[in-house]
């Protein structure tokens, strides 16, 4: 049995080059050279291994753009012509070198090779995808996908555009290869946490990152890079092995630099007389590579000796043996230190093998043969096969990373290419706008408008190709890269205007469809926001600065989720939102999350009585961060502060930059504690009052909270706006909820009464536990599941023990969103016996999951639930009242179901699209009032 595994991964990719208008584009030769020198030679190696009974495994990503070109009939015919001319040139070379013994055998070899390539190409009727699929179906090759147009995902602005890249790729792959891909090659190994959920949505099981992408994960991977880790969404991340990479890629130590190998840069297209090669190079006389090369590397100087393929092939076999030997030693060393067999992941650009390193296919051929016949230490494997070996892999949070220079996007975001991103991001926003507006295309729109929408999606995706930014950085074909980027953006912009004005030029559209004709089955609707905008009207662009001490992944309470949802839905309304928040270890200081610009500030963590001092330091850092943003050229229209923890920063920024201040009060210290009893409570209360005093408007989540803040802060009625919290019904849709085992919580005949929330006194969990014996007296098999964590957990466990109901109560502690959503679905009743509740969003989530609710008749819960219409209410703090309502639901299951159905039907009132829209109206109203003031001095008086 093997002691470890080797996964050879080849990334086959070329940017989409398709020019039906002319055969003079040099860039088409990228494809023709790769077919001749890499793709067909690799296929010949695979076929030879199968014919000889060699059991091997290799993984290849065939990118959607490359697959589209290989399947394109025009390019197939052009390649056939190119290959015929290459054979003709090789035949001429045989005649020319007849009296040149150092070159003649090689010329004959080229001629024979090209004839075999032609025979192979025609055998598969000019479609190499058929050959790749044949080897896939033989079980030797795992074909994985890539982003649709090889877009560098960390620099995509919106989740919608990222989803479009993945969805289009998976669809194209499934159509062409007959099965959905299990894996994906993230372009340039560019990982961003935003991609994680999208990969899960489209059934992707694994991806690859450079080694530092795993080694810098949180927590530190215990197996290092020789076993995958999984993301929070369960997607496996395989790390590139540095040792195997160095042996092939390194310019100093890599095998391809051996002096016996063929010299890439000496080609007869440059070496021979112009008249002789003229029919085989560019029509305008531009010298190009023909693929016929007669010299070996020889040494570092200009002098080159003739190339001998037999000697080079022998050297490739030696290198294959050396590579296998090193992997065996590597596996033996690590196997004793791991609790599983290690996997060495060796990923390379496929075009290295044959195109850049002529002997590369021979190397792979010999490597697989040596492993099969000679090695008892390692076996070749695919990532999918390795994942199936073990049931558990360490869960880690991976940071943003890439391969390439410096490992963090440096190649794709520099002075040479950074100008493309504002245009790309604007196009993303416009494409989302079009998809949202044309949610259902029917009637007169079906046809021309739908074609235009599809073509707009193609043009945007093509503009996003990472190849163009890479070319600009490497300074090779810069003019072509710039031209292609501008052409696609300009085409998209013209399509956008035509669709907006309902004046699509069909003749011009047809010409675009011929030029940029990839992805015939493209679905432009993947650009739709998950929750399409309910109202659509032109709005002025606004830039908002939002302050919140918590933001995902930092989640202490409901504030984090509120700010996240509000900010990302404001983005969908066309607002540019910047959130200042606290740093989180393992997460970047600056990133874009679902279109929201998140800026995290560093401050020492609080320690007991130092909490107030910590909050003061946090506010100072927020002000500094705001100054940095403004000095960088940003100008904000207003600042929106959430709760007292950011009050000082909100006030300072308001006065420093003459900005209107809006405050959202999520809860008050007075309400939480039913009065003010300590110095700390009085201090927090004063901070809350000062924030509401300085704010131009105050937003609260319920009528109850409006009455509370107007009373305790003495606010005028017209200064306070009520906007409820929102809920995402689709996140709680049964189709989106992971299927877990209900038996973990209760037997099939045991009804579940569920509580979800922080274990603090104001949530009333103790009331539920005191009511439990009263319920169990009639429904002895009832199970009470308490989900959440908090300072009262020990006290609550003691209470359950004292009540004698330990066997009927399960404390789950903190659970993932997936598990919480599952429990909301399978529970028979969700109970929220709060003593104080400004809104009660978790009750809304239970209603969205279709679960009947019992809530206290307090605070925002009283606004959300109408007794005996969409739920039942209890008297706050009364265990008997809670027990009565739960027993009513258990006794009358049909009645409870009716309540739940009514609640679900009315949940649209809490759609985040509407809440963001109403928030935007408040912003616009404030700015209109500000503009009407005679002097800026009036803005800062605090009396508005």
TrEMBL record:
| Limits of the Glycoside hydrolase family 57 N-terminal domain | 8-398
The Glycosyltransferase subfamily 4-like N-terminal domain covers which part of the protein? 556-730
Which residue range or ranges hold the 1,4-alpha-glucan branching enzyme C-terminal domain? 424-527
Alphabetical GO CC annotations of the entry are:
extracellular region
Q: Which Pfam families match?
A: BE_C, Glyco_hydro_57, Glyco_transf_4, Glycos_transf_1
Is NADP there in the keyword field?
Answer: no
Q: Which residues bind substrate?
A: 240, 257, 403, 467
Top-level taxon of origin? Bacteria
Instruction: Quote one Gene Ontology molecular function term.
Output: 1,4-alpha-glucan branching enzyme activity
Q: Which InterPro entries match?
A: 57_glycoside_trans_central (IPR037090), BE_C (IPR015293), Branching_enz_MT3115-like (IPR040042), Glyco_hydro/deAcase_b/a-brl (IPR011330), Glyco_hydro_38_N_sf (IPR027291), Glyco_hydro_57/38_cen_sf (IPR028995), Glyco_hydro_57_N (IPR004300), Glyco_trans_1 (IPR001296)
Residues of the active site are 188, 349
Q: Where is the Glycosyl transferase family domain positioned along the sequence? A: 741-903
Keywords assigned = Carbohydrate metabolism, Transferase
GO BP, sorted A to Z: alpha-glucan biosynthetic process
Similarity-based family: Belongs to the glycosyl hydrolase 57 family.
| Protein's name according to its UniProt entry | Glycosyl transferase family 1
């Amino acid at each position: 049995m093997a002691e470890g595994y080797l996964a050879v991964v080849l990334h086959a990719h070329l940017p989409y080059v398709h020019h039906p208008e002319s055969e003079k584009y040099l860039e088409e030769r990228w494809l023709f050279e790769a077919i001749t020198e890499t793709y067909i030679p690799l296929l010949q190696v695979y076929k030879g291994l199968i014919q000889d009974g060699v059991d091997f495994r290799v993984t290849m990503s065939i990118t959607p753009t490359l697959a589209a070109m290989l399947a394109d009939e025009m390019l197939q015919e052009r390649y056939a012509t190119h290959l015929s001319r290459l054979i003709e040139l090789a035949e001429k070379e045989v005649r020319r070198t007849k009296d040149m013994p150092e070159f003649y055998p090689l010329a004959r070899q080229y001629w024979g090779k090209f004839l075999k390539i032609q025979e192979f190409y025609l055998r598969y009727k000019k479609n190499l995808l058929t050959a790749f699929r044949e080897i896939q179906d033989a079980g030797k090759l795992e074909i994985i996908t890539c982003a649709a147009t090889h877009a560098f995902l960390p620099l995509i602005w919106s989740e919608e555009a990222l989803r479009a890249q993945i969805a289009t790729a998976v669809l194209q792959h499934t159509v062409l290869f007959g099965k959905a891909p299990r894996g994906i090659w993230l372009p340039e190994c560019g990982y961003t946490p935003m991609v994680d959920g999208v990969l899960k949505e489209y059934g992707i099981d694994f991806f690859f990152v450079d080694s530092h992408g795993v080694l810098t994960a949180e927590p530190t991977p215990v197996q290092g890079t020789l076993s995958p880790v999984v993301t929070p969404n369960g997607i496996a991340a395989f790390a590139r092995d540095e040792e195997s990479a160095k042996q092939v890629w390194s310019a100093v130590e890599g095998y391809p630099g051996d002096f016996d190998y063929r010299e890439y840069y000496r080609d007869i297209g440059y070496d021979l007389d112009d008249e002789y090669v003229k029919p085989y190079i560019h029509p305008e006389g531009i010298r190009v590579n023909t693929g016929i090369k007669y010299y070996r590397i020889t040494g570092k100087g200009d002098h080159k000796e003739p190339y001998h393929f037999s000697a080079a092939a022998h050297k490739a076999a030696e290198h294959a043996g050396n590579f296998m030997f090193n992997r065996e030693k590597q596996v033996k060393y690590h196997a004793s230190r791991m609790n599983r067999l290690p996997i060495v992941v060796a990923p390379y650009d496929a075009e290295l093998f044959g195109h850049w390193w002529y002997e590369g296919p021979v190397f792979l051929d010999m490597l697989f043969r040596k492993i099969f016949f000679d090695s008892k230490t390692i076996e070749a494997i695919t990532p999918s096969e390795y994942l199936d070996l073990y049931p558990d892999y360490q869960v880690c949070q991976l940071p943003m990373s890439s391969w390439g220079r410096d490992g963090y996007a440096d190649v794709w975001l520099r002075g040479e290419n950074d100008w493309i991103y504002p245009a790309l991001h604007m196009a993303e926003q416009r494409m989302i706008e079009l998809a949202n507006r044309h949610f259902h295309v029917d009637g007169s729109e079906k046809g021309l408008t739908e074609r235009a929408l599809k073509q707009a999606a193609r043009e945007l995706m093509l503009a996003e190709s990472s190849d163009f930014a890479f070319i600009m950085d490497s300074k090779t074909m810069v003019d072509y890269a710039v031209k292609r980027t501008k052409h696609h953006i300009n085409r998209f912009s013209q399509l956008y205007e035509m669709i907006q004005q309902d004046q699509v030029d069909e003749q011009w559209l047809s010409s675009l469809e011929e030029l940029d004709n990839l992805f015939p089955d493209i679905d432009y609707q993947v650009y739709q926001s998950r929750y399409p905008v309910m109202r659509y009207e032109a709005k002025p662009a606004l830039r908002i600065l939002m302050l919140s001490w918590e933001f995902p992944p930092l989640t202490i309470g409901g504030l984090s989720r509120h700010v996240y949802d509000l900010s990302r839905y404001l983005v969908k309304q066309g607002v540019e939102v910047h959130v200042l928040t606290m740093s989180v270890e393992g997460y970047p200081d600056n990133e874009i999350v679902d279109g929201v610009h998140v800026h995290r500030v560093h401050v020492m963590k609080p320690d007991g009585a130092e909490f107030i001092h910590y909050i003061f330091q946090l506010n100072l850092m927020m002000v500094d961060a705001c100054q940095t943003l403004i000095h960088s050229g940003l100008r904000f229209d207003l600042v929106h502060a959430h709760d007292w923890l950011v009050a000082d920063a909100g006030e300072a920024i308001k006065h420093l930059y003459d900005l209107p201040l809006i405050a959202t009060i999520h809860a008050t210290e007075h309400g939480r504690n039913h009065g003010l009893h300590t110095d700390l409570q009085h201090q927090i209360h004063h901070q809350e009052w000062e924030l509401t005093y300085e704010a131009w408007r105050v937003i609260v989540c319920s009528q109850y909270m409006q009455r509370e803040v107007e009373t305790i802060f003495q606010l005028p009625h017209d200064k306070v706006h009520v906007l409820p919290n929102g809920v995402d019904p689709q996140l709680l849709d049964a189709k989106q909820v992971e299927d877990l085992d209900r038996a973990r919580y209760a037997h099939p005949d045991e009804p579940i009464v569920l509580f979800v929330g922080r274990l603090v006194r104001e949530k009333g969990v103790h009331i539920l536990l005191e009511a439990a014996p009263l319920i169990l007296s009639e429904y002895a098999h009832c199970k009470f599941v308490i989900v959440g964590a908090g300072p009262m957990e020990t006290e609550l466990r003691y209470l359950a023990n004292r009540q004698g109901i330990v066997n009927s109560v399960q404390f789950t502690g903190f659970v993932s969103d997936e598990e919480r959503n599952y429990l909301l679905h399978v529970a028979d009743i969700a109970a929220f016996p709060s003593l104080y509740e400004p809104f009660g969003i978790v009750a809304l989530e239970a209603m969205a999951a279709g679960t009947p609710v019992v809530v206290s008749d307090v605070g925002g819960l009283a606004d959300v639930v109408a007794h005996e219409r969409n739920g039942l209410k209890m008297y706050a703090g009364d265990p008997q009242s809670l027990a009565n309502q739960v027993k009513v639901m258990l006794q009358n299951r049909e009645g409870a179901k009716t309540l739940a159905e009514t609640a679900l039907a009315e949940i649209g009132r809490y759609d985040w699209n509407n809440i963001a829209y109403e928030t935007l109206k408040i912003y616009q109203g404030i700015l209109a009032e500000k503009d009407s003031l005679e002097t800026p001095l009036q803005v800062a008086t605090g009396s508005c």
